[in-house]
Amino acid sequence: MTSSLTMLRLISLAAFCSMASMRVCDPMLVALSLEYQVTTGDASAVIAAFAVAYGVLQLVYGPLGDRVGKVRVIIGATAACAVFSAVTALAPSFTVLVVARAAMGAAAAGIIPLSMAWIGDEVAYEQRQETLARLMVATVTGMMAGQWFGGFATEVLGWRAALGALALAFFTAAVLLLRHARAIGALGGAPLPPGAPAFSLANYLAGTMALLRVARVRWVLAVVAIEGALAFGTLAFVPARMVDGFGLSAAAAGGVMVLYGVGGLIYSVFARRWLAALGEQGLALLGAALVGVGLLSLAWAPAVAWAMLGCFLAGIGFYMLHNTLQVQATQMAPQARGTAVTLFACLLFLGQSTGVLIVAFSVDRGWIPPVFTAAAAGIVVLGWLISRRVQARGGVAGVGAQGVAL
User: Fold this and answer.
1) Which tens digit of pLDDT belongs to each residue from 165-187?
2) What is the DSSP string of 260-290?
3) CA-based Rg of the chain, rounded to a whole angstrom?
4) What is the C-alpha to C-alpha distance for residues 345 and 129, in angstroms, rounded to an integer?
5) pTM tops 0.90, yes or no
6) Which of 394, 342, 292 is nearest to 117 (CA)?
7) For a 10 Å CB count at each end of the chain, is N or C smaller?
């Protein structure tokens, strides 16, 4: 038990670094545009390159983790992130910087989804939501730390220092993970059935298609894509709403966004109590309702204080709803959990990208309030649909105590 808890803490450290690396460049765009003499829009390629590589590589890490071992892949991905973060810190040209960020996104893609899959393997279903909430503390804190430290380091130390510090953090996490995994013998992969075929693209595609033929898998993937579009598609434009609607500065608008992460942290602290009191049905319904209220506040609030409260409530609600979906993702295909969870992450990113494109089209026409309102209604309906597919007390029909399909 102690060794598993230590492993969870070290995996959470790697997940913290992964999420921080995803957001660390957000406040650096102006500094990068000045140093490399490109426009701010062109500088945003460092963010886009990371995100695209992160999403696409999800499809690779799932079967790789199932075959060679999830912990082994997490350690390798963390070590690769250390290398590529160091390259970004030393990048002599903008092209090298963008390529290194893409490589870093490709490496970081192997950390958080496989960490979820590892939890699915090691933790009984009844404790899984609480354990995933602990991992969520690391990812949410990493997101907040990346946004804050990226801006702080850019102003005080220079943007290269922030990326160098990330390289050191990734290296530390990789070394600690490797030492502990060796000590407890956790580097092996899952035993393959006798006569199991060697990995090939054809076998991978066949396995993926087999998963997609399962109605439950299709349902979870469709729902998380819609969730990503509705929740994250609007979230990306909350700072614009704060600036245009309430006259805040860009820095103050970024500070308001921290409230979203704080909401997630509060959920993670009270996850066990709320799950015991509400069950998964209640978490899905209440979470969706809070996101809806938050988006409506952001859309129509007459004063900035109400909009800030809306951002905070949306953060709590989103993590209630998404954590419930994460649990379903770990259980929708136990025989190929790594592949299933990385498909889940891939569809989440695809949904986010689609949502951002749709909302961006609307924002250019001054439609933020009605679009936020439509998203609020969509989230509430989605929460109701999710609640109908889960049991009231931490289970799904046909799932046993250890998370094995019956």
Assistant:
1) 999 999 999 999 999 888 877 66
2) HHHHHHHHHHHHHHHHHHHHHHHHHHHHHHH
3) 21
4) 17
5) no
6) 342
7) N
